[in-house]
Amino acid sequence: MTEKPQANSNDLTIQDLVIMKGIIDIASERSAFKPAEMVAVGTVYNKLSVFLKAVEEQQKIASEQKAKETDNA
Questions:
Q1: DSSP letter at 37?
Q2: Most buried among 4, 11, 17, 72, using CB within 10 Å?
Q3: CA distances from 57 to 19, 44, 62, 63, 67 (A)
Q4: What is the CA radius of gyration of the chain?
């Protein structure tokens, strides 16, 4: 009997990162961070934004390649 690997509910997904970015947005709009914390929050936010943009670009490229393969088939 072959066992299927179970998805770990603790796995971090791209959607989780998008949600985290939104949480930072909301918290900063509500002035939830102290001035001394803003540098750390901003650094993480910027890294998260760059990462998510890169993932979005990779997904777009993969989507376009898949469409080309489908058209050529």
A1: G
A2: 17
A3: 18, 20, 9, 10, 15
A4: 18
21-55 burial code (b ≥16 CB/10 A, e <16): beebeeeeeeeeeeeeeeeeeeeebeeeeeeeeee
> In the structure encoding, which two tokens stand for residue 65, read together?
């390649």
Quick one: DSSP state of residue 9? T
The phi and psi torsions of 47 (rounded to 5 degrees) equal -60, -40
Question: Which residues of the chain register pLDDT less than 70?
Answer: 1-7
What pTM did the predictor assign? 0.75
Residue 50 in tokens: 């760059």
